[in-house]
Structures are given as structure tokens and as C-alpha cells.
Amino acid sequence: MPLHSDVFQAPSGYNAPQQDEPGSNTVVYWSENSQVKKKATGNVYTYKFYTYTSGFIHHCTIRNLEYDTKYYYLVGDRNSMRKFWFTTPPQVGPDVPYTFGIMGDLGQTYASNITLTHYEKNPEEGRAVLFVGDLSYADNHPNHDNVRWDTWARFVERSAAYQPWIWTAGNHEIDFAPEIGETKPFKPYTHRYHVPYRASQSTAPFWYSIKRASAYIIVLSSYSAYGKYTPQNQWLEQELPKVNRSETPWLIVLMHSPWYNSYNYHYMEGETMRVMYEPWFVEHKVDIVLSGHVHAYERSERISNIAYNIMNGICRPVKDPSAPVYITIGDGGNIEGLANNMTEPQPEYSAYREASFGHAIFDIKNRTHARYSWHRNHDGYAVEADSMWFFNRFWHPVDESSQ
Ligand SMILES: [Fe+2]
């Protein structure tokens, strides 16, 4: 969408974003059922990227919030002060229902705007977004024009200011541009999008975990080292055994580059990570793996391909009740167009595939059942273009396939 689009307009008022001055680093907040206003103090900084200098970027963590409570919060100064709200998640527990939205490769095109609107209008009402990477596509603009990181943030504010988006780093977050002297990977992304990685003993913001309601979410980085002995590999090996399915029955993994992808785009890019980690996912009975990158939609059967060693030649995906369902949902809107060229015939492991823009909902009912649905942008808000009931791999590991 052009820079003058309404969804990109900065709010009015003195020193409103993009700010010329640091402004206030205080957030005032209060719960719906209380008149007591509290304050939290954040950090503020700027960063440079080639000839671009960012506005003053504020990050503020509010601690010791009550579960399942609506909070209002105020940011900014005087007449440019702005009020938002969010609701904290319910306490973690095995049968706590919770609804996640799923989006990937969103970008800031007209299609992106329709995707976000469809997510907001979906009657299933997602309470947090699992975002599988590729946010702004600023790097597709001349010199990675970081103004496009600003506009993207303003575009998604209408959702992201009110509910958490759980971030995964995609290739468009790398912003590695040695030709203009920008050699620190993920510089704009890490300055703008903070994740609570230290809470899960991670040493970098690209891989981490979050517990929410009855779900345990593991975020991985397709673009950080993941081979044997690397920090991400060590972390994941220690992380998976920590998942207590009696507390959080649903084990969800996010990554950007898909392992099972039958489109002729980014074909087999996820293969080396699959070889490293797929045996662990099967051993630990991951329920669902979400990725993006391919600008289309695809859902796999429950399959694994872990029998191969360099001698035996057993290298076909097979049905596996302990394996996750793999979903590619890089169909947010991007800037490069849809991936509409598929390998033919459709491989047996691929249950459903379609090159349309959209988003999905993962609606956890209890420890055994979750309703999954994919929603196309060109359908009505409530239409499920693809759907399935997920049976939890730990508590109810029966075959869900229809045949
Ligand atoms: Fe990507």
C-alpha cells in the first residue's frame, strides 16, 4: 500500500510517532476493576540503518499483572497520549480453553490489510497471534527502507496494541546488507520486536518458549545456527523434556521455513533443520508445527520421515501417529505475490494445499480437542476453507484423518 494510505498515518498530537524527541518512558496502567493507576518505566533508544535513523523506540515491561484481567494502558505525553487495552491470559492449566490466531508473511499490501481485517472479524476471536515470520518486507524496498518498518508497525497496531503477537524471525527480518555497510543480522527486527526469551533460558531472541493457557509454544529460528553443538540446538534439546503435558497438553512449534512443502517455491529449504530435529518432534509428540515462507497454504497428514540413515535408503514420509501436523501459512499478503506453482502430483503426505491469501485459527477446547480452521480472504469472515479437529497427541492420540 502506498505511504499515504490511511492505515499508515501517524497519530496526531505533539511529538507523536515518529517522534523528534524521546518523550515519556512511563506507561500508566490500571485494571478494569480498579481505579488505582500504576506506573511502569521503560527503556528508550534509537538505531541507525544506512541513511535512516529511527524515531525513539520505547520498550516497557509491566510486571505482576493478574491473570484473566483487562488492563488499560496509556503511552505518550500530554495531548499525544494514547490509550489502549489488553486482557491477560488465564492461568496455565490442562483444560483451559484458548484461541490463537495464526498469520505469516504478512507484509503491507492490500492483501495484507484484508488478511488482518479477516482475522479481526473472524467470529472465533483469536486472543493472541502466532506469527510465523516475515513481518514488514522493508528489505524489498531500496536500501531496506526502514520507513517501511515504521509503517508496518502502524499498520498492525490495531491488533498488536491489544493482544500479544508471538514473533518468529523470518528471512525478511535478517536485513543483512553488506553493500550498504549493514552487516549485523536482524538489526531492525531486534530493536523493534522484543520477546521474553530469557524466561525460557534462551540466550538469543530467535528461539524461546511461552506457556499460555493449555499450550506450550516453542519458537525456532530457521536463520540461526541449529546444527549439533549450536546454542539453538542445545537449548531445544533441553527444552523439549521440560514440557509437562499434564500442565500444558498442547505442544505447538513455530518456525519460518517449512519442512514439508510441496510447492515449487523454497523447495526443501527446511530440509537440513528437519533432518536435525524431526526425530525429537516425534519423540516428544509435538501436536502441530506452523511455518510460513511459502506464500500459500498447505496442511500435511501426520507423517514422519525419520527412518533414513545414510545406508538404508528408507527416505519416504510415512504415516506416524506420534508426528505433528505441519501447516504452511505464509499466505498473509507479502509483496512478492502468491506461490501458485505446485509439484504434481500432490504428494501423499500433503492433505490440503491452495494458493490463496488467508489466516488460521487454533481453538483449544480442552486437553483432548482443538478446532483448527483456515480462512481465505475472498470468503466471508466465518467461512472455513480448510479445517480439522486436532486430537491431542499426549491425551488422545487417535487417528484424525478422514479416510
Ligand atoms: Fe520468508
UniProtKB/TrEMBL annotation:
* Reaction equation(s) it catalyzes: a phosphate monoester + H2O = an alcohol + phosphate
Required co-factors: Zn(2+); Fe cation
The record's Pfam families line, in alphabetical order, gives: Metallophos, Metallophos_C, Pur_ac_phosph_N
Domain Purple acid phosphatase N-terminal stretches: 20-88
Please tell me which top-level EC class this enzyme sits in. Answer: hydrolase
Describe the location of the Purple acid phosphatase C-terminal domain by residue ranges: 323-382
Keywords (A to Z) from UniProt: Glycoprotein, Hydrolase, Iron, Signal, Zinc
Q: What is its EC number?
A: 3.1.3.2
Residue ranges of every copy of the Calcineurin-like phosphoesterase domain listed in the record: 99-297
Tell me the protein family, please.
Belongs to the metallophosphoesterase superfamily. Purple acid phosphatase family.
PANTHER family xref list = ACID PHOSPHATASE RELATED (PTHR22953), PURPLE ACID PHOSPHATASE 10 (PTHR22953:SF86)
Q: What is the protein name given in its UniProt record?
A: Purple acid phosphatase
* Species for this entry: Hibiscus sabdariffa
Classification from the root reads:
Eukaryota, Viridiplantae, Streptophyta, Embryophyta, Tracheophyta
